[in-house]
């Protein structure tokens, strides 16, 4: 291969037939933030069952060693098995690590429920299986750090929930790669305690949040709430207590039962429990898995047809025992509220680039990298042992550009933004003083907040601008056009 051909070869766009270690690329899987996933088989063993080969986009990416070690520690039927790992040398000399996992032929959780309209016990069973996977992970001192619907695939062969994408995961003794002040994960699923940590340490440039199993459980609660109701739960606005410490109240959103009355009462309680602000009230993955399994079994028994027993001839139909009432099937949320929300978002698009100023909207800039978009996780990811996106791959990414982590740091004040007074108070009631700027909650769904505001503590905020009459002119009024 000449140098021109070699330079055109990129880890994100390997041609079919390329050998990576003992594995041969036979299909495309998708591209994530840090790696590309291919369908591969052992070279010389075709035809064979495919595997998922994840190749690092950047040379010697240390995340792959951490992910390999994490997967090597855990063995569970709802976690893809680690099969191999190694390094692939690019023809120009750069070395890219890879890991090989069990190929999961499945559908992302939210999409699967929308397509199949499953019975309630099936939905609860999938949540229980995901909780069991987290139990196995936490038992090994590991945390997934990106639990969400897009990272749970429902396997086609047997309907089992498979927890995937361990690229953000961390285990005891692993090197910390996230810089201070940053946060890894998907903002819509960020735990209350992680958000509070950022608020309480906003001036400490060396502060680093340490993820715990309870962060995974909160994210599982968000997944369950979104799965059942079709919406994301929201926390209350942050506030300072009597000694000036930032606090958060409990969930501002109603419990799932207020939106889906037919939900099982115990399942409703479990979801609210996972979303508690105080992490110690969530319990453990094992406790939640056991409780979810009990709910699934009980619903199954309630839905089972009554036993056919011989009836005495003299027994009238009015005295015969009646079967238990049927439990309605778990249905995906109706589409018309989503259509209304989309129409509202379209009307708001006239305001979409604007932040609130005295009840009027004014232009802000984007506040978070696209990689942190909570809706990216709902893209279909079929057949992978790792999550990948549907982003177009017609051109290879520039490997010289550092990768952008999905992080949710505090927003910096923008030009012309109102600032709190010496006592930390903003000009108007209901405005939030945050990191030296004044912010107000926007009436936008989390999906529509990207680019129009800032998602923090699971809600959408926009910057409050200073009174324009107090601004200095930016051009000479006497100048001719």
Secondary-structure blueprint:
Layout: H1 3-8, E1 19-20, E2 23-31, E3 35-42, E4 51-56, H2 62-73, E5 82-89, E6 95-102, E7 106-108, H3 109-116, H4 120-139, E8 142-143, E9 152-155, E10 161-163, E11 170-171, H5 192-200, H6 213-229, E12 239-240, E13 246-247, H7 256-259, H8 265-274, H9 285-303, H10 335-348, E14 355-357, E15 360-362, E16 432-434, E17 437-441, H11 446-449, E18 454-456, E19 459-463
Antiparallel strand pairs: 1-2, 2-3, 3-4, 4-6, 5-6, 7-9, 8-11, 9-10, 12-13, 14-15, 16-17, 17-19, 18-19
Keywords:
481 residues; 3 domains; Phosphorylase Kinase, domain 1; alpha+beta; six-stranded antiparallel sheet; disordered C terminus; Transferase(Phosphotransferase), domain 1; 26% helix; four-stranded antiparallel sheet; globular
Structure description:
With 481 residues, the protein is of the alpha+beta class. The protein has three domains: 3-102, Phosphorylase Kinase, domain 1 (2-Layer Sandwich), CATH 3.30.200.20; 106-303, Transferase(Phosphotransferase), domain 1; 347-369 and 407-468, no CATH class. 26% of the residues lie in helices and 17% in strands. The protein is built from eleven helices and 19 strands. The chain has helices at 3-8, 62-73, 109-116, 120-139, 192-200, 213-229, 256-259, 265-274, 285-303, 335-348, 446-449; strands at 19-20, 23-31, 35-42, 51-56, 82-89, 95-102, 106-108, 142-143, 152-155, 161-163, 170-171, 239-240, 246-247, 355-357, 360-362, 432-434, 437-441, 454-456, 459-463. It has a six-stranded antiparallel β-sheet with strand order 1-2-3-4-6-5, covered by helices on one side. It has a four-stranded antiparallel β-sheet with strand order 16-17-19-18, with no helix packed on it. α4 runs antiparallel to α9 (285-303) and α6 crosses α8 (265-274). The protein is globular and about 70 Å long.
């Amino acid at each position: 291969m000449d140098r021109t051909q070699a330079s055109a070869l990129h880890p994100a766009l390997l041609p079919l037939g390329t050998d990576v270690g003992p594995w041969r690329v036979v299909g495309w899987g998708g591209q994530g933030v840090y790696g590309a996933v291919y369908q591969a088989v052992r070279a010389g063993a075709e035809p064979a069952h495919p595997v998922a080969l994840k190749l690092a986009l950047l040379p010697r990416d240390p995340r792959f060693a951490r992910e390999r070690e994490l997967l090597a520690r855990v063995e569970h039927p709802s976690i893809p098995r680690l099969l191999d790992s190694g390094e692939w040398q690019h023809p120009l000399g750069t070395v890219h690590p890879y890991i090989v996992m069990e190929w999961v032929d499945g559908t992302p959780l939210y999409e699967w429920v929308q397509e199949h309209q499953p019975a309630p016990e099936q939905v609860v069973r999938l949540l229980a299986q995901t909780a069991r996977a987290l139990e196995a992970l936490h038992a090994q001192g590991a945390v997934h750090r990106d639990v969400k619907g897009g990272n749970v695939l429902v396997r086609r062969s047997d309907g089992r929930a498979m927890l995937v994408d361990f690229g953000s995961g961390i285990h005891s003794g692993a090197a910390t790669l996230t810089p201070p002040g940053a946060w890894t994960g998907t903002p819509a699923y960020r735990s209350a305690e992680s958000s509070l940590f950022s608020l309480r340490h906003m001036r400490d440039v060396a502060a680093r949040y340490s993820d715990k199993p309870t962060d995974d459980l909160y994210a599982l609660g968000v997944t369950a709430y979104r799965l059942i109701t079709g919406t994301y739960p929201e926390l209350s606005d942050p506030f300072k207590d009597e000694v000036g410490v930032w606090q958060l109240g409990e969930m501002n959103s109603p419990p799932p039962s207020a939106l889906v009355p037919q939900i099982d009462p115990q399942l409703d309680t479990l979801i609210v429990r996972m979303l508690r602000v105080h992490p110690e009230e969530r319990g453990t993955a094992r406790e939640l898995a056991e409780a979810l399994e009990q709910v699934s079994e009980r619903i199954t028994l309630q839905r089972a047809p009554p036993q056919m027993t011989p009836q005495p001839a003299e027994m009238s139909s009015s005295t015969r025992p009646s079967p238990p009432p049927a439990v309605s099937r778990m249905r995906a949320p109706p589409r018309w509220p989503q259509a209304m929300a989309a129409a509202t978002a379209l009307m708001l698009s006239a305001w979409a680039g604007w932040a609130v100023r005295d009840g009027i909207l004014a232009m802000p800039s984007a506040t978070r990298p696209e990689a942190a978009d909570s809706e990216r996780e709902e893209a279909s990811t079929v057949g992978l042992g790792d999550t990948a996106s549907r982003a177009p791959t017609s051109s290879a990414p520039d490997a010289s550009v550092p990768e952008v982590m999905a992080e949710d740091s505090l927003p910096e004040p923008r030009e012309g933004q109102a600032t709190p007074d010496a006592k930390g108070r903003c000009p108007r009631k209901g405005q939030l003083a945050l990191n030296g700027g004044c912010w107000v909650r926007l009436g936008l769904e989390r999906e529509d907040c990207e680019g129009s505001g800032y998602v923090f503590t699971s809600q959408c905020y926009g910057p409050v601008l200073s009174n324009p009459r107090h601004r200095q002119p930016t051009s000479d009024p006497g100048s001719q056009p």
